[in-house]
Amino acid sequence: MSCAIRSTSSRDLWIRLQEQFSTVSKTSIFQMKSNLQTIKKGSDSITQYLQKIKEARYYLSAVGVYFLDKDIVILALNGLPAEYNTFRTVIRWRESVISLKEFRTQLLAE
């Protein structure tokens, strides 16, 4: 309401509303990045775990912060529990970078 009361035209109102609600603070972006980097599999299924990572990445991309697929693979590997150590080692020692789709497929097979 405060935006509407002080506005002198519909254009002015639109600009004020846009400024009010589209601003994402550096703190918010930092928190979203931190959330992405600290996602752990825990008791989630692989599908649930990867979905959490996908959602966090989506929210960041919506505010203009992008991660390469290879960076997402690294983050996903870091969030896996100890029973995936062999899988983690195999993926890290590959000569070529694994695609996100292939990573998902192999992780589900594991």
- Terminal CA distance: 54 Å
* Order of helical and strand elements: HHHHHHH
Supply the number of helical segments: 7
Kindly estimate the percentage of residues that lie in beta strands according to DSSP.
Answer: under 5%
**Helical coverage, percent range:** 55-70%
Strand element count: 0
Report the principal-axis shape.
Answer: elongated
Tally of domains:
1
**Structural class of the secondary structure composition?**
mainly alpha
Q: Which regions are unreliable across 5 or more consecutive residues at pLDDT < 50? A: none
Largest sheet: none
* Rg from alpha-carbon coordinates: 20 Å
Mean pLDDT: 89
What do these coordinates show?
The protein has 110 residues and is mostly helical. The chain has one domain. The chain is 68% helix and 0% strand. It is elongated and about 65 Å long. The protein starts with a helix and ends with a helix.
Task: Detail the topology: elements first, then pairings.
Elements lengths: L1 H5 L3 H13 L3 H12 L8 H17 L6 H10 L6 H8 L7 H10 L1
Short note summarizing the structure:
This protein is an all-alpha fold and 110 residues long.
